[in-house]
Amino acid sequence: MRYLVIETYVRGAEAVYARAAERGRMLPAGLAYIESWVEADTLDRCFQLMETDDPKLFDEWIANWSDVVEFEVVPVIDSSEAARRARTGGPPRRPA
Fold it and tell me: How confident is the model at residue 95 (pLDDT cuts 50, 70, 90)?
């Protein structure tokens, strides 16, 4: 399954990029990085597309970064799958 990970840099981009340069992504086996984009104006948020069959692996990865980053992990599907699900009734709606 794919996930959109929204990272908010709580101690600034410098702290995040310094750690990444020193230690790498620190991904556990089974959690794959696909692509990322950073908010252009502020450099304080990153949007990463990742993939895993075991979402519990996010806990280990997040623990390596939680002092400098806040995380939101959102399961995502591509638009063709969303269209297929919408045609067949789709998932239950979120409460308002």
Answer: low
